[in-house]
Design brief:
The complex is a heterotetramer, with two copies of chain A (about 325 residues) and two copies of chain B (about 325 residues). Chain A has about 325 residues and is of the alpha/beta class. In chain A, helix 1 runs parallel beside helix 7, helix 3 packs parallel to helix 4 and helix 9 packs across helix 13. Chain B has one domain: Thiamin diphosphate (ThDP)-binding fold, Pyr/PP domains (Rossmann fold, 3-Layer(aba) Sandwich). Bound molecules: thiamine diphosphate (TPP) (2 copies) and magnesium ion (MG) (2 copies). One thiamine diphosphate sits at the interface of chains B and C.
Chain lengths: ~325, ~325, ~325, ~325
């Protein structure tokens, strides 16, 4: 098993996808010859030639181009460099791609994958810092995933590409150059969907996804030191969302904390809370607590960002608050 | 692919141009009668929702489609019934779609303004102004890789030229020599607003130069002129020489949508337009060219019979299937 | 008090705003000379001349134009004809307008209002039918309101216009030509925010907004006939959201149903559920139930739409299910 | 408003052009030294996050701002430090912003790529490519109503010309004769990609014709040429004659962002560019024009002293205030 960091795992998945799917094509801004501003697409152009190309700074053309190519038999893999930039062309994924299969009763399909990345990194400005997964997860017809580990960066991207529907895979800049880990690169491509219990526990369920997984692991470890056993679930996919795994866990622990980097209000954490408040209300022994960016715009100065963006500390505090509620 | 029509002109004027014109007259008439019937159905409450008719603009789809081949992919706007018919989509399946019938091309899911029929090369309407342009560029992109030799055509109104996505599609296609034809259906109005007031220079074909690609303006009420311009663009596209802008000048003889009060019209505007509309012009040319009034009448009758039959069959069909309404969201 | 239908109330509010705010300007597609495709802006051009104008079909220019005019002292009121069309230019409201005040520490402000309308109407296609309020409500810095009555169409629009921050007021086509009602048109302009208890009740709380209010009223009436007393809350504003009114009601009734036309998953109903599952969990005597469009694209045929779009019947069923849970 | 600088050239070449050039040299140098210092601060970890320097492009903001007035509104991209300095924003407040200090123009909220300083007419950077163009058109729209006689200027890279919002802004401004100047800073690259490969015709000024407005291409390394072109556009804008496209040809001497490996450069490309960059050219012209080497040195020294002092003051300032981080979300 090769040892890969997150971005190399993305790169390996792209290479494999181009290799295994002859109908795959791949494009985006600075994607081909430069190999991507984060090196995610390095080497693809050399290896796959014209199937990989750079585009103008035209997100509507990139996404629309992917849709048109997809309905005509290609399997496009495109990059929107930052999730914030998606907003100049959201029409193409929401009004166009998501409707293709449904409206045509399956006569047309749009098997395309959009890779993007999001979140706060020290010094990133308000227009390059948002976490917008909730917007995509509110659009029926889309597949939405947020890989948190090198293995998932590899596996989930391949699952998304192999799926015959439009998929948005949201990476996080802060993960790209994280530690290397052994990544299994020759397993079968799994279908999309399915959460992972990253740590089994008994006292409280912690649901998270994407870059917040690292902070969640630290928080769970802190709580373990304090004698609290946290069941940590990495949701991985928001659409389809694996409600069953969360429900089963809450039925066991009776307590639920949800953590994400996105703003709290209207974040997908609300959806998780709402499902549990419907499906597992009687199991709850404490109020459901959400941890996320407080409803604010995002400042650039790192010191200000640290005062806003939640991390292990905030999650640990939420877990403590939750387990402190008497049963 | 020639425009599909069940009616083959009985006694068209002599020569290939005469035969072509007779065929195109029939194809345009078929669209006209279809649209008129839809208008009735809308007023009768059989068709429900917003409907955008292409009455007066029929020469564009008919002429353009005549210059394409079966393998090509066509993308229109919400004003797309004529484009679908020109592609050969059976009138009955189209009536069915607008009537919300199981037999509709999309089983009633698309409706008047957002249906597709890809097996006829009709990749669909689009109800977002400009939304189809980059998608058509993508279809042309696909042809790069599949060896099909196919090209794509996207039609949109002149008002759409002010939408960012159309600009991006034009540049994208130009930069990469994509085989896509951008047909502007210039009917002078963006809904209820004269487009000339929304641009400084209303010769929109000239914008092609901004992208380094050819642009041309033709009489959009003359199917042969449209056909020829699109044929030239198609040859270029198929030769790998990239996109072309074809601006077709026309007039919408009816409202933007059924129910539009048309308060924006100048005195006498529509009456004047009715004198130069494609069916009037083609009919005169056919008669001038030597087609007998009887043959013409026969042609008209046969088209009308086809439309009547299609409408009747569609009306009699089962309503859309509610039991499967949740299906086909995902693979 | 004049008797106005919903769209005339909007029109009256626009007239008053142009009158009272000399810095107000108003524009949009088919907005000025045609008076709006739904007549909402009728008469403004005649009365206010060049302060009211038609635009090209350029949503980014409309929204960006509003922002630029706003930071330079105007108070723009613009129309995005359908909420679906917002998606071609969402950048301008999310990445641009929402950041103006925060990033500049209040040195710049963007007092602009975007009116739009949404939802399913018989026969409307998939690209003209979505309910997207949850997207806007997930964007800190925006004011988001959905008036449900002629009085609110008038009042809330004026509140939004008077507010010195970017506001999105989402109307619903199905309400425009509804019944006339007496509308008080000379009251003071209220600040934004605040839910309304449309019907007091004891047994179950029903929270809704926008066009779903009508169905909610019918459902509440049905339930009243069945001996169940429903407290019906019209949220009106999603940002700021009046959590206190909902919490107080749930503390009284112990039961909560939330109804909206938007797709269930990721809809703003999730946010309401999540807040209650946090703030009033111990008051809950039944699982929180959400009623909304099932996660699907939207077909055009009215018969298919009726099979998907929830109405009084679905709400009544949810209320019954909720009150049937033994205390 | 002339470019603000604390240094008044001691002994500039004779004549108004000479004086102007000396002033502009000083203004450009001030930007250069600012950027160089920022680069050091970034490498030292004092400035954190993505930074886009305008080294090599200084003649554009300096020349353009010289043609505007204090009442005008200016909008730039993330590559905006030079624009802000040209507007007169004090270097200290700008250093402070990039260093995340309380004294920064936005108290550290904007950062390198998204700050504003409206009291200096600098309405802000924009980190969304093309995002500022419609906003600038809106600022020009405001001037319609307020009797200020103000105009607006928006600068963006040549790559932004392929973004839909820029197209919409151009047409919107053209249709309504808005007083806005669209300055293209053409440094030939869209980040890491040569823009010539992303368009068919890389003479982007020609796209102005698509909107029926004047377009011009000038040497973007010559502040006086930029000033003159912008002055002409400004006169037109102020006279109610609408927008102009001014394409300024330049070269970025450094990476797209600090840390860019610049693998896309041709052999010798940057070295050649360094021979014709604005400071080199202006310095030679000043010496040619009769300015003494000593006077020039004095000028340089005084600019450098100003930048040193500003940097030192900014470094010594208090960090951004975390206690107010939730403030100013709403009125
Ligand atoms: C992005 C977007 N904005 C606005 C609309 C509303 N709209 C529908 S048709 C239309 C006018 C289009 O005019 P034109 O492009 O000339 O086409 P025509 O209808 O004349 O054929 C408008 C503004 C839309 N559907 N999509
Ligand atoms: C809408 C959008 N797409 C992509 C980006 C990423 N991006 C930032 S700068 C840039 C290149 C811009 O090139 P150009 O317009 O020539 O300006 P330059 O950086 O050369 O000054 C890109 C693609 C962005 N910020 N916004
Ligand atoms: Mg038109
Ligand atoms: Mg550039």
């Amino acid at each position: 098993m090769p040892e890969l960091n997150y971005v190399s795992a993305v790169n390996a998945a792209l290479h494999r996808a181009m290799d295994e799917f002859p109908e795959a094509i791949a494009f985006g801004e600075d994607f081909a010859i430069p190999g991507g501003v984060f090196t995610a697409s390095k080497g693809l152009r050399d290896r796959f030639g014209e199937r990989v190309f750079d585009t103008p700074i035209s997100e509507a053309a990139i996404l629309g181009g992917a849709i048109g190519a997809a309905v005509r038999g290609r399997r496009p893999i495109v990059e929107i460099m930052w999730v914030d930039f998606f907003l100049v062309a959201l029409d193409q994924i929401v009004n166009q791609a998501a409707n293709v299969r449904y409206v045509s009763q399956g006569e047309l399909t749009a098997p395309l994958t959009v890779r993007t990345q999001q979140g706060v990194l020290a010094g990133s400005c308000a227009q390059h810092s948002q976490s917008l997964e909730a917007i995509f997860a509110h659009v029926p017809g889309l597949i939405v995933g947020l890989p948190a580990t090198p293995q998932d960066a590899y596996d989930m991207l391949l699952s998304a590409i192999a799926a015959d529907d439009p998929a948005v895979v949201i990476e996080h800049r802060s993960l790209y150059f994280g530690p290397r880990a052994p990544v299994s690169v020759d397993g079968p491509i799994e279908p999309v969907g399915g959460a992972r219990v990253r740590r089994a526990g008994e006292d409280v369920t912690l649901v998270t996804w994407g870059a917040m997984l690292g902070a969640a692991v630290s928080a769970a470890e802190q709580l373990a030191d304090e004698g609290v056993s946290v069941e940590l679930i990495d949701a991985r996919w928001l659409a389809p969302f694996d409600t069953a795994t969360v429900t089963a866990s809450v039925e066991k622990t009776g307590r639920l904390v949800i953590a994400h980097e996105a703003n709290v209000s209207g974040g997908f954490g609300a959806e998780v809370a709402a499902r549990i408040a419907n499906e597992a209300l009687w199991s709850l022994e404490a109020p459901i607590v959400r941890v996320g960016l407080p409803d604010s715009r995002i400042p650039a100065a790192p010191v200000l960002q640290r005062a806003l963006v939640p991390g292990a500390e905030q999650i640990a505090a939420a877990l403590r608050e939750t387990v402190a509620v008497p049963a | 692919m020639t425009p599909t029509t069940t009616t083959t002109p009985a006694a068209a004027p002599a020569g290939p141009a005469g035969a072509a014109l007779a065929g195109q007259f029939a194809a345009m008439l078929r669209i006209r009668r279809f649209e008129e019937r839809i208008e009735k159905m809308r007023h009768a409450g059989e068709v429900i929702g917003s409907v955008h008719l292409c009455i007066g603009q029929e020469a564009i789809p008919v002429g353009a489609r005549a210059a394409l081949e079966e393998r090509d992919a066509l993308f229109s706007t919400y004003r797309g019934h004529g484009w679908a018919l020109a592609c050969g989509v059976p009138a009955e399946a189209l009536f069915g779609e607008l009537l919300g019938k199981r037999t509709g091309v999309n089983g009633g899911r698309g409706g008047s303004a957002y249906f597709s029929a890809p097996s006829y090369g009709f990749y669909g309407e689009n109800s977002i102004v400009g939304g189809g342009a980059p998608i058509a560029a993508g279809a042309a992109l696909a042809a790069r890789y599949d060896g099909s030799g196919a090209i794509a055509l996207t039609a949109f109104g002149e008002g759409a030229m002010n939408q960012g996505s159309v600009h991006e599609a034009l540049n994208f296609a130009a930069a990469f020599d994509l085989g896509v034809i951008f047909v502007i259906e210039n009917n002078r109005y963006s809904e209820l607003t004269p487009t000339k007031d929304m641009v400084r220079d209303d010769e929109l074909w000239k914008r092609a130069a901004a992208y380094g690609i050819p642009g041309v303006r033709v009489d959009g009420n003359d199917p042969l002129a449209v056909r020829d311009a699109v044929a030239e663009a198609a040859a270029r596209a198929r030769a790998g020489e990239g996109p072309t802008v074809v601006e077709t000048m026309t007039e919408r003889l009816v409202g933007h949508y059924i129910g539009d009060g048309e308060a924006y019209r100048q005195e006498g505007e529509v009456a004047a337009a009715r004198e130069r509309e494609p069916l009037v012009v083609a009919r005169a040319a056919l008669l001038d060219g030597g087609m007998s009034a009887d043959s013409l009448e026969e042609l008209v009758t046969s088209v009308e019979a086809e439309i009547d039959a299609a409408a009747a069959a569609a009306l009699a069909a089962e309503p859309a299937d509610t039991t499967t309404v949740r299906e086909h969201l995902h693979a």
